[in-house]
Amino acid sequence: MAKLGDWVEPHPHGLYVKPADLWVDSARPSPMALVTHGHADHARGGHGAVWATPETLAIMETRYGPQAGHPIAYGQSQSFGDVTATFVPAGHVLGSAQILLEYRGERIVVSGDYKRRADPTCAPFEPVPCDVFITEATFGLPVFRHPDTGDEIDKLTSALHANPTRCVLVGAYALGKAQRVIAELRARGHDAPIYIHGALERLCALYEDHGVALGELRPATTASKAEMMGHIVLAPPGALADRWSRRLPDPITAMASGWMRVRQRAVQRGVELPLILSDHADWDELTDTLTEIAPREVWVTHGREDALVHWCQTHQIKARALALLGFEDEDD
């Protein structure tokens, strides 16, 4: 008897959909690829043909140059022989999608990365009934319970207002996190100009082009210390301790990341103001999602697989870990 989902084959570099002869989130160039979202551990250049949301394709073109792209909107389906693929919002970053694969009566959802919190920069996660749910586990330990987003943004603005002769330098990943920090600040009434590192400019412009209003952004590279006093400056995490930051007005170093829940990580990176702000589901969101969807099987990848597999087994859900290559979401 065939096993449930045996037509989708996990490999270290991606998921191979055998009856369609295509790959999902392949880390290697492949003739046919489906891509859940634009982060580098899921989206690589060089595919012969790639199907993704229009936003993800735009991100890939910004990063890797022209793509042999086939845009698929949310809710739209595409047939590949006997396999049908439907893209559904994942709530992770702009254009991120879960991919529902249907074949001979079985439904497998490749969730990619996802979160359940409200985010002004992307469409919210939509639960999809399925037989197999392939879930990430980046924060798959009970210790990871993300605080209220508004409270973390208030910490940032409070530090800024308490130090008018300094700036707050926020380390935020260039795709998704930086734009979310800016949008959350705007939503809480922070209308002042925000200065950004040059590495963030292209993706911020892409978000604006896709209807995400970010307000007034100014290049930090050409601004003087006096101009940046009392303002927020955003930069990639790697720039926090870089020579680039020495030109800022006595910066308060902050980092926006789910990993800031781990105090030692903040200390190691010299972070004065840790902001626990993640684009991934925390422990409760992971387990609540599995309870809501109620799949027959759960396949766990990208993170703390063992704890989530154990939780599934104690809740009478068959589960296994997949050995897929990935990163801890690029400084999420």
UniProtKB/TrEMBL annotation:
Q: What is its EC number?
A: 3.1.-.-
SUPFAM superfamilies in the record: Metallo-hydrolase/oxidoreductase
The broad enzyme category this protein falls into is: hydrolase
Q: Which GO terms describe its molecular function?
A: exonuclease activity; ligase activity
Keyword list (alphabetical) reads: Exonuclease, Hydrolase, Ligase, Nuclease
Stored NCBIfam families: Xnuc_lig_assoc
User: Can you name this protein?
Assistant: Ligase-associated DNA damage response exonuclease
Q: Name the source organism.
A: Sphingomonas echinoides
